[in-house]
């Protein structure tokens, strides 16, 4: 029996024989051993020759204020309101910012990284400043990594062959990144506010033009009914309703309340205090006059409008001030009264002064309504034109008020972005200098060598079995040829054998070179990029 042939199977049964497969693999065991040794050797060479890479990183967190305000826009709307969406969108925005040429150029200029490249150049090789800046930017971009580490947590990492430089770069890049990210979040609000400010100037010009046109037309009419008359076609209905309400209250509820207050004062002090002494006070006169003007204006606007709410706020403040002035005068005029009596006298004086002011408001409203109705009865065409012009003024004023409200809202949102409200990106963990290199990773390289050697070895063995067309046993020969084998001869080592040996040697050399090529590509090209 030829020693190069496999031993015949002990059992003559058919089917799959695992021992035959094991023997076939064992005969080609060097196809496993050689890749294993070569790949592990290259991994060892990489570990010993690769330049150590150090990493320094800091952690940033997205802080979300859970409180919501009816005045401010909910900051989570831009992220879809869900933390999962927030993480994905925030990671994309952060990654785009970190890899943007503008951000990298700013870091290169601030740290003067192109100077280090210029110093490392060979003598005689001149490179332009633009090319140096581009190389420094590309190198810095390959050194910065962004990782997501959980719910609203992100890590910014910088790698460099020098641990101190990696730490300094990580610290500067992290602070610069947080600053730029905050600025990028505020940029849309600032742009919207600037647009609204420019649009406000346009609306204000339209309002000024409409008011000038109305004033010119009214001046051309030279009518006393329109000159300095705040009652017009747009508010005549409101003025009529307010006048009827004020008259009803003035003659009814207010008169009854004043009479009751007077009776209380008489019971407390004996006589009603004279109003002339209080009306002689300049501060009280000014407050009553301002109160009359504000009450008159509030009766010409629709209740619930923004202007009406502003007037009500000012009226409330003015009433409190008038009451304080009256209290102070009562103390000066009648210091002997006790607290309860002083309070009754002050309440009576305040209400009497306020009622006199409301009587003046009723008179001014009545005069304005009658003058305007007389004008419309005498000159219907001119009154229609005046109503049109006043409508344009009102529409223009509403646009101005509306856009002023929008500007105020955006200013609030912008200030909220700078404060604790809304979404903020903050540094949660400062970078630290690590003296243990992260590359080369010994465990990863060894695992890569084992996996690569197993893959190459298995592939070579399977390929050798598939390409081997020789007979491995007498039984396989008889089965394939269909004739009985009488005997076998030993292999003769002649010239044919020497040629076959040379071919096998060249084949092995080719296999080894192929393994070295694949391993070199994996360890020296693919691995650094994965790291």
Please tell me about this protein's structure.
By secondary structure, this protein is mainly alpha-helical. The protein has three domains: 124 residues, no CATH class; 149 residues, Alpha-Beta Plaits (2-Layer Sandwich); 155 residues. The chain has 17 helices and four strands. Strands 2-3-1-4 form a four-stranded antiparallel beta sheet. A hairpin with a 4-residue loop joins β2 and β3. α2 packs parallel to α17, α4 crosses α6 and α7 runs antiparallel to α14. The longest helix is centred in the middle third of the chain and has 59 residues. The protein is elongated and about 150 Å long. The N terminus is likely disordered.
Helices and strands in order:
Blueprint: H1 18-27, H2 30-49, E1 54-64, H3 83-98, H4 101-111, H5 113-119, H6 129-143, E2 144-148, E3 153-160, H7 163-221, H8 236-251, H9 253-269, H10 276-279, H11 282-298, H12 306-333, H13 339-378, H14 380-418, E4 423-429, H15 442-467, H16 474-481, H17 495-530
Antiparallel strand pairs: 1-3, 1-4, 2-3
Helix pairs in contact: 2-15, 2-17, 4-6, 5-6, 7-14, 8-9, 8-13, 9-13, 11-12, 11-13, 12-13, 13-14, 15-17
């Amino acid at each position: 029996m030829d020693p190069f042939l496999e031993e015949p199977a002990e059992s003559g049964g058919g089917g799959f024989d695992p021992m035959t497969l094991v023997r076939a693999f064992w005969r080609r065991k060097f196809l496993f051993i050689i890749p294993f040794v070569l790949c592990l050797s290259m991994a060892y060479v990489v570990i010993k020759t690769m330049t150590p890479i150090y990493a320094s990183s800091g952690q940033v967190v997205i802080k979300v204020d859970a409180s919501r305000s009816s005045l401010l826009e909910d900051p989570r709307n831009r992220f879809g309101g869900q933390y999962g969406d927030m993480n994905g969108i925030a990671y994309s925005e952060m990654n785009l910012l970190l890899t943007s040429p503008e951000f990298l150029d700013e870091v290169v200029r601030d740290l003067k990284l192109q100077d280090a490249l210029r110093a490392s150049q060979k003598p005689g090789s001149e490179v332009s400043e633009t090319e140096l800046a581009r190389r420094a930017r590309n190198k810095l971009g390959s050194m910065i990594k962004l990782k997501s580490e959980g719910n609203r947590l992100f890590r910014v990492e910088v790698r460099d062959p020098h641990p101190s430089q990696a730490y300094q770069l990580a610290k500067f890049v992290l602070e610069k990144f947080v600053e730029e990210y905050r600025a990028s979040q505020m940029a849309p609000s600032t742009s919207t506010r600037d647009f609204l400010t420019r649009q406000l100037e346009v609306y204000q010009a339209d309002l000024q033009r409409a008011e000038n046109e109305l004033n010119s037309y009214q001046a051309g009419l030279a009518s006393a009914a329109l000159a300095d008359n705040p009652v017009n076609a747009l508010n005549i209905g409101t003025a009529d309703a307010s006048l009827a309400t004020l008259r009803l209250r003035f003659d009814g509820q207010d008169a009854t309340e004043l009479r009751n207050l007077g009776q209380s004062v008489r019971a407390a002090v004996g006589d009603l205090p004279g109003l002339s002494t209080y009306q002689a006070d300049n501060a009280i006169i000014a407050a009553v006059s301002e109160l009359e003007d504000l009450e008159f204006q509030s009766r010409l606007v629709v209740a619930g409008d923004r202007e009406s709410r502003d007037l009500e706020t000012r009226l409330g403040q003015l009433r409190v001030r008038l009451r304080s002035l009256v209290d102070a005068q009562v103390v000066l005029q009648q210091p002997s009264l006790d607290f309860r009596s002083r309070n009754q006298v002050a309440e009576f004086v305040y209400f009497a002064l306020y009622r006199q002011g409301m009587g003046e408001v009723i008179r001014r409203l009545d005069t304005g309504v009658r003058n305007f109705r007389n004008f419309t009865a005498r000159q219907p065409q001119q009154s229609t034109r005046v109503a049109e012009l006043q409508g344009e003024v009102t529409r223009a004023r509403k646009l101005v008020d509306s856009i002023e409200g929008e500007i105020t809202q955006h200013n609030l949102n912008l200030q909220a972005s700078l404060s604790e409200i809304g979404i903020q990106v903050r540094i949660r963990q400062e970078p630290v200098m690590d003296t243990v290199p992260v590359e080369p990773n010994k465990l990863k390289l060894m695992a890569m060598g084992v996996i690569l050697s197993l893959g190459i070895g298995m592939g070579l063995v399977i390929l050798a079995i598939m390409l081997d067309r020789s007979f491995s046993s007498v039984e396989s020969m008889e089965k394939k040829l269909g004739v009985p084998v009488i005997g076998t001869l030993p292999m003769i080592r002649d010239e044919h054998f020497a040629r076959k040996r040379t071919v096998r040697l060249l084949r092995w050399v080719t296999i080894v070179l192929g393994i070295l090529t694949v391993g070199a590509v994996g360890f020296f090209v693919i691995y650094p990029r994965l790291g």
